[in-house]
Structures are given as C-alpha cells and as structure tokens.
C-alpha cells in the first residue's frame, strides 16, 4: 500500500491481520506543508467576509497570540454548524513563520471595512449604562464628565464610537468603572510624579 502524497500519518484504522472492507479508509495522511486554517465566525461576521480577503493569523487567541503570517480566505461556509452555531471560514496559508501542527489552535483577524476618520477608544474606556455605554470626558481642569456614546465596530482592544465623542477629546481609559461624574482625575504619569515628590 502506497500513499499518493508525502506526509505524516494522522490516523491509523487498520489492525494487523484483521479483515477490512475495500471501501474502508485504513490510513489518513496529511501534508503539513499544505495546511489550510479553518476559522469560525458568527453568521453576521461571516456575511461580511469574502473570498480573497487577507487574514492576519496568530497561534492562540486574543492579544497574546503569536503572529504567524498572512493568509487568504478561499471559502466561506454556506451553512451554520448546528453544534457551534458558527460559520466555517477556510483560509489558505502560503507561508508562516513556523510550521503549524495539525489541530493547533489558530486565530485570525480579517479587515472587513476601512474607515479612515473613525473615532476609536480602548474597550476599557467604555462603562455600561442601561442598554448602552458611556465614557468619561476630561476637560481642561482635569474634571471627568460622563457622556453617553454609541459604539460601532469592535476589534481586540479598541471599539469605534459613532456618536457622542469627537476626535481629540481626552477620556478616562484606566479605571473608568470607578470614576464618578464630575470627579477630579489625574493621569498615571501625574500620579507617579506626585508619589515621587512625597518620598523623603
């Protein structure tokens, strides 16, 4: 028995001396140099992804993922998987920074739109309020004022603000959950300088 491709054995279903059916697969062989990555997206996310889109791939998930390289979307599933309620997005990977292992967890970021003048803020700056969000805008006297905002697209660590905030306005990005309206705030740099002066 000879494999039609060179690769590694990923599954062995044959037992020495056992009788097998001619239609039964005995060995599965994969070529590690020709792997595709399958990502899973929600139906609403998948609707905005098209074949040919570039994908920034990383080993692992979130901001700590190890960068692997750029892939290309070759197929977007037409059906929602019943178990996960997600849509499979197949990505072709021409070259990566290191060999991938079959079954390895890989994440991807796909740019589905470009908004050159978008106002974005760190996700940590958003404070839930009712059915929406608010941010704390800092005025010239370093006083924080709560202001409701409308959010749009999201990425790993930032979110688009579509209304309620103008580009260039200062906001609280650290410890926003503990800030009260009209409270005096200081930056981490100012707090560090104050502490340094107080030391003997």
From TrEMBL:
It holds the Pfam family YknX_C. Gene3D superfamilies: 2.40.30.170, 2.40.420.20. InterPro entries: RND_pump_MFP, YknX-like_C. Residues 119-186 form the YknX-like C-terminal permuted SH3-like domain. Transmembrane segments: none annotated. One of its GO terms (molecular function) is efflux transmembrane transporter activity. It comes from the Bacteria. GO terms for cellular component: efflux pump complex. Belongs to the membrane fusion protein (MFP) (TC 8.A.1) family. This is Efflux transporter, RND family, MFP subunit. It comes from Gemmatirosa kalamazoonensis.
